[in-house]
Amino acid sequence: MPAGPQDSFQERKRRLRASFIEQLPDRLRQARELLAALTTSERQDEPLSQLHLIFHTLKGSGASFGFDAINASAKEAEQTLREVLDGDRRLSPHLLADLRRHVQTLEELKLSVDSAMAADSQPRFTLPAQRADEAGSNQRLIYLCDDDPILARDLSDQLGCFGYEVEPYASLEALRLAALKRLPAAIIMDIMFPEGRDAGPAAVAELNARLDTHVPCLFISMRDDFQARLRAVKAGGYAYCRKPVKAVELAELLDQLTSRGTPDPYHILIVDDDPDVGQFYAMVLDAAGMVTRVANEPERVPAILEEFDADLVLMDLYMPHCSGPELARVLRQIPGYLGLPIIYVSSETDARRQFKALEVGADGFLTKPIEPERLVTEVHLRAERMRTLRSLMIRDSLTGLFNHNTILQLLKVAMASCQRSGRLLCLAMIDVDHFKAVNDTHGHPTGDQVLMALGRTLRLRLRESDIVGRYGGEEFAVIMTGLDADQAKTIMDSLRESFAAVTFIADGTEFHCTFSGGLAAFPEYSDPSALIEAADAALYRAKRAGRNRILIAHSNSRQ
Ligand SMILES: Nc1nc2c(ncn2[C@@H]2O[C@H](COP(=O)(O)OP(=O)(O)OP(=O)(O)O)[C@@H](O)[C@H]2O)c(=O)[nH]1
């Protein structure tokens, strides 16, 4: 039979089990030595803790790797040692003899990889939120159905600024006919219609059944009751937004729904002092499409996190020199990791101890042995949540671009990285021309549409590596690396020309907008505030020189 991904998973598991069996005598020898050093006359916390850690690890790994006999014997010994460490029991000669007996039982076990493999169930991974995308070739075509024709038209126009081709429909019948003729990439659907309070989800369900497909769907509604949300979920709704909805939120959701590219996999850092256990979790999560990194030494974690952008940390509870809660506390004291989800994985079942460990700001507790499927689901759900929350914290709600604080942070990070690598960096500050007049003439909502369109133009036209943010009001900041100021100016000029060509329509009147920009380059300006000040000054000059142009700041011509 050809080797498939499942075979390689089983093969890796086999290797880990073999390595566990190989290391077992050495661990038991350490346990024997520690036991020999223990006397009943005085309390010796250090060897007792070390011994506890050995049995604790054996208990967890035994369970994870399917060696039930190891798990059972180590569990009893661990419990006894825990009681001694807590002061609930004295270290009597009888108790020492008991511990030696446990070590002996473990030494005498006849372990075989094959028997453990045979007892293993085949892991299956069913990742939540796998999105079907069978909407046909037109990735930008969206149907929006709402019985309020003004809202349908207005929202469609706004979504147009995000690059979507949105067709508004004010009746369910009109939408049905359109969908039967040509399938859209997604449908945005209201819940309540004259046909009934739940007519929107019913129509979507009927359409899917009729076409034998699943058209991705977002629901929008004034309703916020459980029933409405449940109907939407039953009809296969991907998201539910309460009215009034922001076009930028819908655009973000549509981006997720209609993107054909695979989403960026979750990055999971696994911290476990036992290399085999760490590898085991990594193997399970890798097989589910996540990217993992294993740290066996807690002290290396901050350095690893600096270059591995983790969505979540999976952490062992008991580790020598630095426990899981201690490491969690260290991380929480670093501002960038205050919100990083930390999940403990441990065979600790005592609820009091679990709570204590969580108190330091960790987010969850998974008790060993954990089924691969459950591990994948738990990690996936928490990492997904983290991404959503992070996005809300760092993005501007109108344009979906990075907000003011985030762009400043990112500029600092990018400049520090360019400093190390010797790469060039340019900052462009751009500002819509005569924007006050747009608001005054066409109204604030139209002004908002202009800002959304500019944000979108910047995001779609620039490289993935460029960082775009809304600096404030009608001012945007763009960080470009690996380019000198002249190259950056060429790009910004081309964007400026494209934006000037966009036709906006408000109340039947067409109008155009332009923007001006100021560019400053690193290392000519070597610290973030000097770079921003220089780009801003160049922007100011561009405005004074007549607008609709990009000017470069030079340190010898500062004004
Ligand atoms: N619609 C809308 N307007 C905003 C927003 N933030 C700031 N503004 C408006 O942007 C306008 C900025 O106007 P000014 O700074 O006077 O400059 P300008 O009219 O753009 O003219 P120049 O920059 O000199 O070309 C103000 O009227 C603000 O109220 C926003 O989020 N939405």
UniProtKB/TrEMBL annotation:
Q: Mind listing the GO molecular function terms for this protein?
A: diguanylate cyclase activity; protein kinase activity
Residue ranges occupied by any Response regulatory domain in the UniProt entry: 141-258, 267-383
Give the record's keywords alphabetically.
Phosphoprotein, Two-component regulatory system
- Give any single GO term for biological process: negative regulation of bacterial-type flagellum-dependent cell motility
Q: What is its EC number?
A: 2.7.7.65
Mind telling me which GO cellular component terms the entry cites? plasma membrane
**What residues bear 4-aspartylphosphate in this entry?**
D190, D316
Q: Tell me the domain of life.
A: Bacteria
What reaction does this catalyse?
Answer: 2 GTP = 3',3'-c-di-GMP + 2 diphosphate
Which Pfam families does the entry mention?
Answer: GGDEF (PF00990), Hpt (PF01627), Response_reg (PF00072)
What sequence ranges are listed for the domain HPt?
A: 9-113
Which CDD domains does the protein's record reference?
Answer: GGDEF, HPT, REC
Which Gene3D superfamilies does the entry link to? 3.30.70.270, 3.40.50.2300, HPT domain
GGDEF domain location, by residue? 423-555
- Tell me which residues bear Phosphohistidine: H56
Q: Which InterPro entries does the annotation name?
A: CheY-like_superfamily, Diguanylate_Cyclase, GGDEF_dom, HPT_dom_sf, Nucleotide_cyclase, Rev_trsase/Diguanyl_cyclase, Sig_transdc_His_kin_Hpt_dom, Sig_transdc_resp-reg_receiver
Q: Which cofactor does it need?
A: Mg(2+)
Q: Please identify the protein, giving its name as recorded.
A: diguanylate cyclase
